[in-house]
Amino acid sequence: xxxxxxxxxxxxxxxxxxxxxxxxxxxxxxxxxxxxxxxxxxxxxxxxxxxxxxxxxxxxxxxxxxxxxxxxxxxxxxxxxxxxxxxxxxxxxxxxxxxxxxxxxxxxxxxxxxxxxxxxxxxxxxxxxxxxxxxxxxxxxxxxxxxxxxxxxxxxxxxxxxxxxxxxx
Length: 169
What we know:
It is built from 8 helices and no strands.
């Protein structure tokens, strides 16, 4: 935490310093996500032909996953709101009819698989949850791991995206 401004510095200098620190923290976070997650850019997939509809769709899904992981508090709040709204609707006659019709829908089952893959099944239904406990649990599990040193080394020695693709070939 930065100490309050001294009598010689202005309030503007203090605010400017805080803004610079905030921006730098976001830049570092973005760089971390860039290194940890597969590229969301088109052309990053070796599974689909370049420019294909599947490759474009994969790029969009990866960008969505990155956004979900970068903003877990927003995702958690939206998830809780949607669950609550769905439950309120399900008790109405129209909602009960939809619930019955969708219960065995293959499309809904596929949608659930996609949601689980994108969200890593992290959001929780409890509206009191601000930050999903899966994030905290991962930290505790890593801390208690007998291979913590190896985990840390691998986190610090991640190959650059270009190097990873070259090594895979």
